[in-house]
Design goal:
heterodimer; A: 266 residues; alpha/beta; Rossmann fold; 8 strands; 16% strand; globular; B: 119 residues; alpha+beta; hypothetical protein PF0899 fold; 2 domains; three-stranded antiparallel β-sheet; 6 strands; 30% strand; binds guanosine-5'-diphosphate; binds magnesium ion; binds zinc ion
Chain lengths: 266, 119
């Protein structure tokens, strides 16, 4: 990067940058993403998925926004169309994996302890506990948290972020890192909209657009089966797109994943 | 907070560099960080000593270069500074922009203490 021209210097770090190198010391230029080890593991996970033609989706939201309920409804509706599997990383409700298994699909519960996010190594370990033969779509339900999970690549192809209408419609402005990373934003629990006068879906969408995010914003209610077809159609499109890429030996990552060095090292 | 995980990854990276270069220790290092990386410099700075305790990076001084949030407009081509939750073009106001700076989380350089040689 611009180590030599000095354009990175601020009054706070100038003294540091020009500190003469003392004898017995040396400065090494590194230019590596801090989470490189996680990123390497994520790339390995993604290769696993690609070689099996699996579309992997990372589901993120605040605790209680309806991730597990969305999965239950989706599995019930699509289980004759696709083979679905789930990695459960949500620690809010211990029995999320049980709820999924009750739908007749394989689910592995990651025991995260007090972890506030999943990482690529946890997902890799989970993969070794699962039979992925014939699986079309693998959902990873991340820890309910709008801050940490967005920073860790798991090897997923797309990110889906839920925002329930019982939360503020300004959440995308408060958690820009999370909502910028979404390839689809689901406004969930819309059956409750008539009872809430302060959640405006148009305003929520405009906060997402302010993050330069072109992702579709889909309104739905898993409990009352409202708007679910839009979500199912989006899933079908993503799977078809993923299959086409995999057939060409290509893959994809979430549209707005931190590109770190690749994007900025000029 | 996830800053502890990031600090642990950082210490591991520093340990690898110290080992590869056959150095004694890392004495300082520089990180380029943007607000859209999702990692808060202050939290990373306070997590670092916990992660580095007992390692060859234990006494290393951390220096941050904060990367500004900048976008390039896909409509008018202008490049401008932006707020992290309003990535709009500063010239025409359009939201169809691309981030050119602000999501970095990069270890730029490390200063190493080399073993004392007698020659
Ligand atoms: N009214 C309504 N409640 C829902 C809907 N989806 C989920 N919930 C409720 O929200 C709570 C949290 O849902 P859950 O799926 O466990 O959220 P998670 O923590 O994101 O996995 C539960 O009490 C659900 O019954 C919905 O579409 N409408
Ligand atoms: Mg859940
Ligand atoms: Zn965290
Ligand atoms: Zn413009």
């Amino acid at each position: 990067m611009c180590d030599t021209c000095g354009c990175n210097l601020t009054p706070g770090n100038r003294k540091f940058a020009y500190k003469p190198v003392e004898p017995g010391a040396t400065t090494v230029s590194v230019l590596q993403n801090l989470l490189k080890k996680n990123d390497d593991q994520a790339a390995h996970n993604r290769a696993h998925f690609d070689s099996r033609g699996i579309l992997t989706i990372n589901l993120m939201s605040s605790p209680g926004s309806g991730k597990t309920a969305l999965l239950e409804a989706t599995i019930a509706a699509l289980k004759n169309e696709f083979k679905i599997a789930v990695i459960e990383g949500d620690l809010e409700t211990e029995n999320d994996a049980e709820r999924i298994r009750a739908q007749g699909v394989p689910a592995h519960q990651i025991v995260t302890g007090t972890a506030c996010h999943l990482d690529a190594h946890l997902v890799h370990d989970a993969l070794h506990h699962m039979n992925l033969n014939g699986v079309d779509i693998l959902f990873i339900e991340n820890v309910g948290n709008l801050v940490c999970p967005a920073s860790f690549d798991l090897g997923q192809h797309v990110n889906v972020t839920l925002l329930s209408v019982t939360e503020g419609d300004d959440k995308p402005a408060k958690y820009p890192v999370m909502f910028r990373a979404a390839d689809a934003v689901l406004l969930s629990k819309t059956d409750l909209l008539p009872h809430l006068d302060d959640f405006n879906p148009v305003r929520a969408t405009s906060h997402v657009r302010n993050l330069a995010n072109t992702a579709p914003v889909i309104q739905l209610s898993a409990r009352k089966d409202i708007g679910m077809d839009g979500w199912y159609n989006w899933l079908r499109e993503q799977l078809a797109a993923q299959r086409a890429l995999a057939a060409d030996g290509a893959t994809r990552r979430p549209a707005i994943q931190p590109d770190g060095i690749q994007l900025h090292a000029v | 907070m996830h800053e502890l995980s990031v600090a642990q990854a950082l210490v591991e990276q520093l340990e690898n560099i110290v080992r590869e270069r056959k150095a004694d220790a890392a004495t300082s290092f520089r990180i380029r960080i943007g607000p859209l990386s999702g990692v808060v410099p202050d939290l990373l700075a306070s997590a670092f000593p916990l992660a580095a305790a007992g390692s060859v990076a234990e006494h290393a001084v951390m220096d941050f270069v904060e990367a500004p949030v900048r976008v390039r407009c896909q409509t008018c081509g202008a490049e401008s500074e932006a707020a992290m939750n309003r990535l709009l073009c500063g010239a025409c106001g359009d939201w169809h922009t691309q981030l050119v700076s602000g999501d970095e989380l990069i270890l730029e350089s490390v200063e190493l203490q080399l073993p004392v040689t007698t020659q």
